[in-house]
Design brief:
The protein has 289 residues and is α/β, with parallel strands linked by helices. The chain is built from 11 helices and 8 strands.
């Protein structure tokens, strides 16, 4: 059965129908395949990979080439989902020319369907140039992790005097510049609801309440891979970190006890010698009892 791809137009139609958008991060082909098959609409190859994959304290060290590498892997695993590549720190802030060049490189080398960049009205002109060049752009306002040091850490945004008006202005300006959706991160739920009502493009919330057109979480957080990390806005749908450790401990015990591999998981010279088949391929599941 043919699978209909999720596009920027699909997402706009989902907002118009009042159908919520489910977005998750993905960094490799295996996760992309699983998330895609489970029904995720959008897969974000986020610069969050710097923290959850590479082990950094912030997203700042991630490079454009690294994002492109992970985009290629995710693209090979996804069949239906819309794949978005994050523009990492200092890949677009220095100049519009730099931003257009690097976004084009990410689209070409990463084979993603769109790019995401952090920041509001300050990047409106760049957004226009990208859209004019045929590059779909997802905006991102509120808590912008690439501004970690400027913000003084990871803090909820919009609570200060004028915060609501500034965020609303940023969202409207980005929409006018041509973004097809906007991530709203770590802002009060009532402000996110106002923004969602004020713009025609879909809003994707993370720590922004239920009033957004969709939600996004880091997949590793949602699956509970790091038992020590549990922000207020994250709901753990599994405790995979502990389950993986349990499985590894079982494997280690079997290896040390000589219980793995069994005869059924081993090969013999005489086996199927006369009529070679797919069983000759050690990675094939053919012929399993």
């Amino acid at each position: 059965m043919k699978t209909t791809k999720v596009t920027i137009h699909t997402l706009r139609q989902m907002k118009e129908r009042g159908e919520k958008i489910a977005m998750l991060t993905a960094y490799d082909a295996t996760f992309a395949r699983l998330l895609d098959e489970a029904g995720a609409d959008v897969l974000l190859v986020g610069d969050s990979l710097g923290m959850v994959v590479q082990g950094h304290d912030t997203t700042l060290p991630v490079t454009l080439d690294e994002i492109a590498y992970h985009c290629r892997a995710v693209g090979r695993g996804a069949r239906r989902a819309h794949v978005v590549g994050d523009m990492p720190f200092m890949s677009y802030q220095a100049s519009h020319e730099q931003g257009v060049s690097n976004a084009g490189k990410l689209m070409k080398d990463g084979a993603c369907h769109a790019v995401k960049l952090e920041g509001g009205a300050v990047h409106a002109e760049l957004v226009q140039k990208l859209v004019n060049a045929g590059i779909p752009v997802m905006g991102h306002i509120g808590l912008t992790p690439q501004s970690y040091h400027q913000l003084g850490g990871f803090k909820v945004q919009g609570r200060d005097v004028g915060g609501r008006e500034r965020l609303l202005s940023d969202a409207r300006t980005l929409e006018e510049a041509g973004v097809y959706s906007i991530v709203l991160e770590a802002i009060p739920a009532d402000i996110a609801r106002d923004i969602t009502a004020a713009v025609a493009v879909p809003t994707i919330g993370i720590g922004a309440g239920t009033g957004c057109d969709g939600q996004v979480l880091v997949s590793y957080d949602m699956l509970g891979l790091d038992e020590t990390f549990k922000p207020r806005f994250v709901r753990r749908y599994e405790t995979m970190g502990q389950r993986i450790k349990d499985a590894v401990q079982h494997y280690v015990a079997d290896v040390r006890a000589g219980a793995f591999p069994s005869d059924a998981e081993s090969f013999s010279i005489a086996e199927n010698k006369a009529t070679p088949t797919a069983m000759d391929n050690p990675y094939s599941s053919a012929g399993k009892k």
